[in-house]
Amino acid sequence: MADSYDREVVRQETTTGEPVRPVTPVTPVTPVTTSSTSRTAVHSEGGYNTRAIQAIWWIVGFIDVLIAIRFVLKLFGANPAPFVRFMYDVTWPLVAPFHGIFNTAQEGRSVLEPESLVAMAIYALIGWGIVSLIRLMSRPRSSTTVVE
Question: Residue 58's domain spans which residues?
């Protein structure tokens, strides 16, 4: 992820032309020199967009980690200890919209819950979409000036 920042690009070009040939040999020959400088400045307005993007990725990462913990607990057939029940209760609303998409495979107490994997992927895609929208709406403006 590239962060927004202020930058200025300066390019200077110097060209030397053919010397002007005088009619009389007494006058010295001087080359014609042309110099031009081009500046491009890109300014980002405020650092709030970067912070918003970081906050969105942090929230998406937090949600995905919670769902991943749920997936691992179910996969290994964790005992219904208070922590395990707490994790199932917290993550159920996040996984519920995807419940029933696939059949859940169970072997003893171990449960393979593919809807948890689908939920993690969907939340990551939603986060990516929101971040892309923020970047699109707050694209830095650039201005080019030529100084000679």
Answer: 48-137
* Alpha-carbon span 114 to 130, nearest angstrom: 25
Q: What is the pTM of this model?
A: 0.63
The torsion angles phi and psi of 110, rounded to 5 degrees, stand at: -80, 130
**3: nearest Cα among 144, 143, 131, 142:** 131
Between the alpha carbon of residue 104 and those of residues 73, 91, 111, 138, the distances in Å are 14, 17, 7, 43
Give the tens place of pLDDT for each residue, 44-64: 555 568 889 999 999 999 999
Residues 77 and 129 reside in one and the same domain = yes
Both 56 and 114 in a single domain?
yes
Long-range CB contacts (within 8 A, 24+) of 111-118: 111/74, 111/75, 111/77, 112/74, 112/75, 113/70, 113/71, 113/74, 113/75, 116/67, 116/68, 116/70, 116/71, 116/74, 116/91, 117/71
- Number of structural domains found in the chain: 2
